[in-house]
Design brief:
alpha/beta, 2 domains, 8-stranded mixed beta sheet, two-stranded antiparallel ribbon, Alpha-Beta Plaits, Rossmann fold
Protein backbone atom coordinates (compact mmCIF):
# COMPACT_ATOMS: atom_id res chain seq x y z
CA UNK A 1 0.00 0.00 0.00
CA UNK A 2 1.45 3.35 -1.04
CA UNK A 3 2.04 5.83 1.78
CA UNK A 4 -0.31 8.82 1.85
CA UNK A 5 2.72 11.12 1.79
CA UNK A 6 6.07 10.55 0.15
CA UNK A 7 9.52 11.63 1.23
CA UNK A 8 11.42 13.72 -1.32
CA UNK A 9 15.04 14.39 -0.36
CA UNK A 10 16.74 17.53 -1.62
CA UNK A 11 20.38 18.46 -2.12
CA UNK A 12 20.88 22.13 -2.94
CA UNK A 13 23.23 23.22 -5.72
CA UNK A 14 24.50 26.11 -3.58
CA UNK A 15 27.98 25.52 -2.18
CA UNK A 16 28.68 27.45 1.01
CA UNK A 17 31.57 25.37 2.39
CA UNK A 18 34.54 24.38 0.28
CA UNK A 19 34.54 20.69 1.08
CA UNK A 20 33.86 17.72 -1.18
CA UNK A 21 30.95 16.57 0.95
CA UNK A 22 29.32 19.98 0.46
CA UNK A 23 29.71 19.89 -3.33
CA UNK A 24 26.74 18.72 -5.38
CA UNK A 25 28.42 15.39 -6.29
CA UNK A 26 29.23 14.93 -2.60
CA UNK A 27 25.66 15.68 -1.62
CA UNK A 28 24.45 13.18 -4.21
CA UNK A 29 26.36 10.52 -2.30
CA UNK A 30 24.33 11.40 0.79
CA UNK A 31 21.11 11.39 -1.21
CA UNK A 32 21.82 7.85 -2.36
CA UNK A 33 22.17 6.79 1.28
CA UNK A 34 18.67 8.12 1.96
CA UNK A 35 17.22 5.72 -0.62
CA UNK A 36 18.14 2.60 1.44
CA UNK A 37 19.50 0.77 -1.59
CA UNK A 38 20.54 -2.33 0.36
CA UNK A 39 16.93 -2.84 1.43
CA UNK A 40 15.62 -2.42 -2.12
CA UNK A 41 18.07 -4.37 -4.23
CA UNK A 42 19.32 -7.92 -3.79
CA UNK A 43 23.05 -8.78 -3.88
CA UNK A 44 24.07 -9.33 -7.48
CA UNK A 45 20.80 -7.89 -8.80
CA UNK A 46 21.03 -6.08 -12.12
CA UNK A 47 19.93 -2.44 -11.89
CA UNK A 48 19.31 -0.23 -14.91
CA UNK A 49 20.51 3.34 -14.45
CA UNK A 50 18.21 5.07 -16.94
CA UNK A 51 19.50 8.39 -18.23
CA UNK A 52 19.67 10.39 -21.47
CA UNK A 53 22.88 10.32 -23.52
CA UNK A 54 22.18 13.62 -25.30
CA UNK A 55 22.58 14.39 -28.97
CA UNK A 56 25.37 15.86 -31.12
CA UNK A 57 25.76 19.32 -29.59
CA UNK A 58 23.39 18.68 -26.66
CA UNK A 59 25.82 18.74 -23.77
CA UNK A 60 23.68 19.61 -20.73
CA UNK A 61 22.88 15.99 -19.88
CA UNK A 62 23.64 14.35 -16.53
CA UNK A 63 27.39 13.84 -16.65
CA UNK A 64 29.79 11.18 -15.36
CA UNK A 65 30.56 13.15 -12.17
CA UNK A 66 27.02 12.25 -11.07
CA UNK A 67 26.34 8.97 -12.86
CA UNK A 68 29.54 7.47 -11.44
CA UNK A 69 28.33 8.20 -7.91
CA UNK A 70 24.98 6.56 -8.59
CA UNK A 71 26.84 3.52 -9.91
CA UNK A 72 29.22 3.48 -6.92
CA UNK A 73 26.31 3.59 -4.45
CA UNK A 74 24.61 0.70 -6.21
CA UNK A 75 27.81 -1.35 -6.19
CA UNK A 76 28.29 -0.59 -2.50
CA UNK A 77 24.79 -2.03 -1.93
CA UNK A 78 25.86 -5.22 -3.74
CA UNK A 79 23.93 -4.57 -6.97
CA UNK A 80 25.25 -4.80 -10.53
CA UNK A 81 24.36 -1.57 -12.35
CA UNK A 82 24.46 -0.73 -16.03
CA UNK A 83 23.86 2.72 -17.55
CA UNK A 84 21.37 2.79 -20.39
CA UNK A 85 19.10 4.72 -22.74
CA UNK A 86 17.02 3.88 -25.79
CA UNK A 87 18.12 4.66 -29.33
CA UNK A 88 17.41 8.30 -30.33
CA UNK A 89 19.64 8.43 -33.39
CA UNK A 90 21.38 5.53 -35.15
CA UNK A 91 22.65 3.25 -32.41
CA UNK A 92 26.38 3.33 -33.10
CA UNK A 93 26.21 7.10 -33.45
CA UNK A 94 24.30 7.36 -30.19
CA UNK A 95 26.95 5.42 -28.29
CA UNK A 96 29.53 7.79 -29.73
CA UNK A 97 27.45 10.77 -28.58
CA UNK A 98 27.40 9.25 -25.08
CA UNK A 99 31.16 8.88 -25.21
CA UNK A 100 31.62 12.48 -26.38
CA UNK A 101 29.50 13.59 -23.43
CA UNK A 102 31.82 11.63 -21.14
CA UNK A 103 29.47 8.70 -20.55
CA UNK A 104 31.37 5.46 -21.00
CA UNK A 105 32.37 2.40 -18.98
CA UNK A 106 35.58 3.98 -17.71
CA UNK A 107 33.97 7.23 -16.59
CA UNK A 108 30.82 5.88 -14.93
CA UNK A 109 32.20 2.58 -13.65
CA UNK A 110 29.59 0.36 -15.32
CA UNK A 111 28.69 -0.91 -18.79
CA UNK A 112 26.98 1.67 -21.02
CA UNK A 113 24.46 -0.09 -23.24
CA UNK A 114 21.48 0.62 -25.48
CA UNK A 115 18.29 -0.68 -23.91
CA UNK A 116 16.65 -1.52 -27.24
CA UNK A 117 19.67 -2.62 -29.23
CA UNK A 118 21.78 -0.96 -31.89
CA UNK A 119 18.82 -0.67 -34.24
CA UNK A 120 16.33 0.42 -31.61
CA UNK A 121 14.00 -2.49 -32.36
CA UNK A 122 14.67 -4.80 -29.40
CA UNK A 123 11.47 -4.36 -27.42
CA UNK A 124 8.41 -6.09 -25.99
CA UNK A 125 4.78 -5.05 -26.49
CA UNK A 126 3.15 -4.08 -23.18
CA UNK A 127 -0.44 -2.93 -22.44
CA UNK A 128 -0.52 0.85 -21.96
CA UNK A 129 -4.05 2.06 -21.23
CA UNK A 130 -7.02 3.62 -23.00
CA UNK A 131 -5.16 6.16 -25.13
CA UNK A 132 -2.17 4.20 -26.40
CA UNK A 133 -3.46 0.66 -26.06
CA UNK A 134 0.03 -0.86 -26.25
CA UNK A 135 3.62 0.34 -26.38
CA UNK A 136 6.97 -1.25 -27.22
CA UNK A 137 9.01 -1.20 -23.99
CA UNK A 138 12.74 -1.65 -24.58
CA UNK A 139 13.87 -5.17 -23.77
CA UNK A 140 16.61 -4.37 -21.26
CA UNK A 141 14.35 -2.09 -19.23
CA UNK A 142 11.48 -4.59 -19.49
CA UNK A 143 13.67 -7.44 -18.23
CA UNK A 144 15.70 -5.55 -15.62
CA UNK A 145 14.56 -6.36 -12.08
CA UNK A 146 15.30 -2.84 -10.76
CA UNK A 147 15.99 0.68 -11.98
CA UNK A 148 17.28 4.11 -10.94
CA UNK A 149 15.69 6.79 -13.13
CA UNK A 150 18.09 9.73 -13.53
CA UNK A 151 16.20 12.60 -15.17
CA UNK A 152 17.59 15.92 -16.36
CA UNK A 153 14.84 18.49 -15.76
CA UNK A 154 14.21 20.88 -18.66
CA UNK A 155 11.57 22.39 -20.88
CA UNK A 156 10.13 20.65 -23.91
CA UNK A 157 8.37 22.00 -26.97
CA UNK A 158 5.56 19.40 -26.73
CA UNK A 159 5.55 18.36 -23.07
CA UNK A 160 6.24 21.83 -21.64
CA UNK A 161 8.06 20.23 -18.70
CA UNK A 162 10.27 17.17 -19.17
CA UNK A 163 11.19 15.16 -16.10
CA UNK A 164 10.93 11.60 -14.85
CA UNK A 165 7.56 10.86 -16.50
CA UNK A 166 8.88 11.81 -19.91
CA UNK A 167 12.17 10.01 -19.23
CA UNK A 168 10.21 6.81 -18.58
CA UNK A 169 7.67 7.31 -21.35
CA UNK A 170 9.86 8.33 -24.27
CA UNK A 171 13.09 6.92 -22.89
CA UNK A 172 11.73 3.54 -21.82
CA UNK A 173 9.70 3.02 -24.99
CA UNK A 174 11.44 2.36 -28.30
CA UNK A 175 10.92 4.51 -31.36
CA UNK A 176 9.77 1.56 -33.42
CA UNK A 177 8.79 -2.10 -33.30
CA UNK A 178 10.44 -4.42 -35.82
CA UNK A 179 7.08 -5.61 -37.21
CA UNK A 180 4.50 -3.00 -36.23
CA UNK A 181 6.66 0.05 -36.88
CA UNK A 182 6.40 3.40 -35.09
CA UNK A 183 2.70 3.22 -34.21
CA UNK A 184 3.39 1.43 -30.93
CA UNK A 185 6.61 3.36 -30.31
CA UNK A 186 7.23 6.80 -28.86
CA UNK A 187 5.98 8.36 -32.09
CA UNK A 188 2.49 7.13 -31.15
CA UNK A 189 2.57 9.54 -28.22
CA UNK A 190 3.34 12.46 -30.51
CA UNK A 191 0.69 11.62 -33.08
CA UNK A 192 -1.55 8.91 -31.55
CA UNK A 193 -1.34 6.71 -34.63
CA UNK A 194 -1.59 9.30 -37.41
CA UNK A 195 1.02 12.03 -37.64
CA UNK A 196 1.48 12.83 -41.31
CA UNK A 197 4.03 15.47 -42.32
CA UNK A 198 2.92 18.32 -44.58
CA UNK A 199 5.19 20.63 -46.58
CA UNK A 200 4.39 24.17 -47.68
CA UNK A 201 6.58 24.83 -50.70
CA UNK A 202 6.00 28.59 -50.58
CA UNK A 203 7.35 28.87 -47.03
CA UNK A 204 10.35 26.58 -47.59
CA UNK A 205 13.74 28.32 -47.66
CA UNK A 206 15.56 25.20 -48.91
CA UNK A 207 17.98 25.41 -45.99
CA UNK A 208 17.90 21.60 -45.64
CA UNK A 209 18.03 21.73 -41.82
CA UNK A 210 15.16 19.20 -41.68
CA UNK A 211 17.15 16.78 -43.81
CA UNK A 212 20.23 17.24 -41.62
CA UNK A 213 18.39 16.79 -38.31
CA UNK A 214 16.44 13.65 -39.23
CA UNK A 215 17.82 10.77 -37.10
CA UNK A 216 16.86 8.18 -39.71
CA UNK A 217 17.96 10.12 -42.80
CA UNK A 218 14.50 9.56 -44.28
CA UNK A 219 14.02 13.15 -45.53
CA UNK A 220 15.29 14.22 -48.93
CA UNK A 221 14.65 16.93 -51.52
CA UNK A 222 14.82 14.93 -54.72
CA UNK A 223 17.49 14.95 -57.43
CA UNK A 224 17.22 18.71 -57.94
CA UNK A 225 17.11 19.51 -54.22
CA UNK A 226 13.82 21.41 -54.45
CA UNK A 227 10.98 19.09 -53.36
CA UNK A 228 10.52 17.84 -49.79
CA UNK A 229 9.81 14.14 -49.41
CA UNK A 230 10.01 11.65 -46.57
CA UNK A 231 9.65 7.90 -46.10
CA UNK A 232 6.36 7.57 -44.26
CA UNK A 233 6.85 4.02 -42.94
CA UNK A 234 10.34 4.68 -41.59
CA UNK A 235 9.62 8.07 -39.98
CA UNK A 236 9.58 7.98 -36.15
CA UNK A 237 7.37 11.09 -35.85
CA UNK A 238 9.93 12.68 -33.52
CA UNK A 239 9.05 16.14 -34.82
CA UNK A 240 12.63 17.40 -35.06
CA UNK A 241 12.13 18.55 -38.64
CA UNK A 242 9.27 20.84 -37.65
CA UNK A 243 11.28 22.33 -34.77
CA UNK A 244 14.29 23.32 -36.84
CA UNK A 245 12.43 24.71 -39.85
CA UNK A 246 12.96 28.51 -39.83
CA UNK A 247 10.05 29.19 -42.19
CA UNK A 248 7.55 26.82 -40.53
CA UNK A 249 7.22 25.06 -43.86
CA UNK A 250 6.77 21.61 -42.30
CA UNK A 251 3.73 20.74 -40.21
CA UNK A 252 3.42 17.58 -38.13
CA UNK A 253 -0.07 16.24 -37.48
CA UNK A 254 0.34 15.84 -33.74
CA UNK A 255 -1.89 14.66 -30.93
CA UNK A 256 -3.88 17.25 -29.03
CA UNK A 257 -1.74 18.58 -26.14
CA UNK A 258 -3.97 17.11 -23.43
CA UNK A 259 -3.98 13.68 -25.04
CA UNK A 260 -0.22 13.83 -25.52
CA UNK A 261 0.32 14.61 -21.82
CA UNK A 262 -1.97 11.79 -20.74
CA UNK A 263 -0.27 9.38 -23.14
CA UNK A 264 3.07 10.20 -21.51
CA UNK A 265 1.67 9.13 -18.14
CA UNK A 266 0.21 5.97 -19.69
CA UNK A 267 3.53 5.01 -21.28
CA UNK A 268 5.39 5.71 -18.02
CA UNK A 269 2.90 3.45 -16.25
CA UNK A 270 3.46 0.73 -18.84
CA UNK A 271 7.21 0.86 -18.24
CA UNK A 272 6.82 0.83 -14.45
CA UNK A 273 4.37 -2.06 -14.74
CA UNK A 274 7.28 -4.31 -15.73
CA UNK A 275 8.84 -3.86 -12.26
CA UNK A 276 7.78 -5.18 -8.89
CA UNK A 277 6.75 -2.54 -6.31
CA UNK A 278 9.67 -0.79 -4.61
CA UNK A 279 12.23 -1.67 -7.29
CA UNK A 280 12.39 1.77 -8.94
CA UNK A 281 13.80 4.97 -7.44
CA UNK A 282 14.14 8.44 -8.93
CA UNK A 283 16.74 11.19 -9.10
CA UNK A 284 15.70 14.50 -10.68
CA UNK A 285 18.58 16.82 -11.58
CA UNK A 286 17.44 20.45 -11.58
CA UNK A 287 20.63 21.71 -13.19
CA UNK A 288 21.33 23.22 -16.60
CA UNK A 289 17.60 23.76 -17.01
CA UNK A 290 17.38 24.56 -20.70
CA UNK A 291 14.20 25.28 -22.67
CA UNK A 292 14.42 22.30 -25.03
CA UNK A 293 14.86 18.53 -24.91
CA UNK A 294 18.29 16.87 -24.81
CA UNK A 295 17.29 15.10 -28.06
CA UNK A 296 17.93 18.23 -30.10
CA UNK A 297 21.34 18.79 -31.76
CA UNK A 298 22.22 21.72 -29.54
CA UNK A 299 21.68 23.13 -26.07
CA UNK A 300 20.49 26.63 -25.28
CA UNK A 301 21.64 28.51 -22.18
CA UNK A 302 19.75 27.63 -18.97
CA UNK A 303 16.54 29.55 -18.37
CA UNK A 304 16.42 28.99 -14.58
CA UNK A 305 19.24 28.94 -12.03
CA UNK A 306 20.44 25.51 -10.87
CA UNK A 307 18.38 24.25 -7.93
CA UNK A 308 19.97 20.93 -7.03
CA UNK A 309 18.98 17.25 -6.99
CA UNK A 310 15.82 15.57 -5.71
CA UNK A 311 15.54 11.89 -4.72
CA UNK A 312 12.48 9.77 -3.98
CA UNK A 313 10.84 6.40 -4.53
CA UNK A 314 7.60 8.07 -5.65
CA UNK A 315 7.26 9.20 -9.28
CA UNK A 316 4.44 11.69 -8.83
CA UNK A 317 5.89 13.20 -5.66
CA UNK A 318 9.31 13.89 -7.15
CA UNK A 319 7.75 15.41 -10.27
CA UNK A 320 5.44 17.61 -8.20
CA UNK A 321 8.34 18.70 -5.97
CA UNK A 322 10.46 19.53 -9.03
CA UNK A 323 7.70 21.63 -10.56
CA UNK A 324 6.98 23.41 -7.28
CA UNK A 325 10.66 24.29 -7.06
CA UNK A 326 10.77 25.68 -10.61
CA UNK A 327 7.57 27.70 -10.53
CA UNK A 328 8.10 31.22 -9.31
CA UNK A 329 11.79 31.22 -10.24
CA UNK A 330 13.30 34.27 -11.84
CA UNK A 331 14.42 33.92 -15.47
CA UNK A 332 18.14 33.97 -16.08
CA UNK A 333 19.43 37.02 -18.00
CA UNK A 334 20.01 36.62 -21.73
CA UNK A 335 18.10 33.34 -21.83
CA UNK A 336 14.99 32.33 -23.76
CA UNK A 337 12.99 33.06 -20.59
CA UNK A 338 14.17 36.65 -20.15
CA UNK A 339 11.50 39.13 -21.19
CA UNK A 340 12.28 42.51 -22.75
CA UNK A 341 14.64 44.03 -20.27
CA UNK A 342 12.89 42.19 -17.43
CA UNK A 343 15.56 39.70 -16.46
CA UNK A 344 15.01 40.32 -12.74
CA UNK A 345 11.24 40.08 -13.02
CA UNK A 346 9.67 37.22 -11.03
CA UNK A 347 7.86 34.66 -13.14
CA UNK A 348 5.06 32.46 -11.93
CA UNK A 349 5.80 29.65 -14.36
CA UNK A 350 8.69 30.08 -16.81
CA UNK A 351 8.22 26.76 -18.63
CA UNK A 352 4.52 27.43 -19.15
CA UNK A 353 5.29 30.87 -20.55
CA UNK A 354 7.92 29.45 -22.88
CA UNK A 355 5.91 26.58 -24.37
CA UNK A 356 2.26 27.40 -23.63
CA UNK A 357 1.62 23.76 -22.69
CA UNK A 358 -0.33 22.71 -19.60
CA UNK A 359 2.32 20.25 -18.48
CA UNK A 360 0.56 19.58 -15.17
CA UNK A 361 -1.81 17.29 -17.09
CA UNK A 362 0.88 14.61 -17.19
CA UNK A 363 1.29 14.81 -13.40
CA UNK A 364 -2.46 14.73 -12.80
CA UNK A 365 -2.93 11.72 -15.10
CA UNK A 366 -0.05 9.86 -13.47
CA UNK A 367 -1.77 10.47 -10.13
CA UNK A 368 -5.06 9.18 -11.56
CA UNK A 369 -3.28 6.05 -12.83
CA UNK A 370 -1.96 5.33 -9.33
CA UNK A 371 1.70 5.98 -10.14
CA UNK A 372 2.32 7.88 -6.90
CA UNK A 373 1.11 10.64 -4.63
CA UNK A 374 1.18 14.42 -5.03
CA UNK A 375 1.55 14.87 -1.27
CA UNK A 376 5.15 14.99 -0.17
CA UNK A 377 7.54 16.14 2.53
CA UNK A 378 10.60 17.93 1.20
CA UNK A 379 13.59 16.90 3.31
CA UNK A 380 16.81 18.90 2.75
CA UNK A 381 20.03 17.06 3.51
Amino acid sequence: MKASRANVYFASARVLKWRHEESLPGRLERLMEKLDLQKRFMPGEWVAVKTHFGSPGAHRVIGPAFLSRVVAALKAAGAKPFVTDTVRINGLDYLEVANQNGINHLSVGAPVVLADGLYGRDNIIVPAGEILGEVAVSTLIHDAPAMVVCSHIKGHINAGYAGAIKNLAMGGVSASHRVRGWKCGRGAMHSLGEGKLFWDEEKCELCYQCEEVCPLECISFGPEGKKFQYEDERCWRCGRCTRVCPGQAIAHEEAAPGEFMRSLAEAAGAVLGTFRPGKVVYLNFLTGIQPECDCMPGADVPVIQDKGILASDDLVAIEKASIDMLRGSAPLPESAAASNGGENEKKTDILLELHKKDYLIQIEHALKLGLGTADYDLIPI
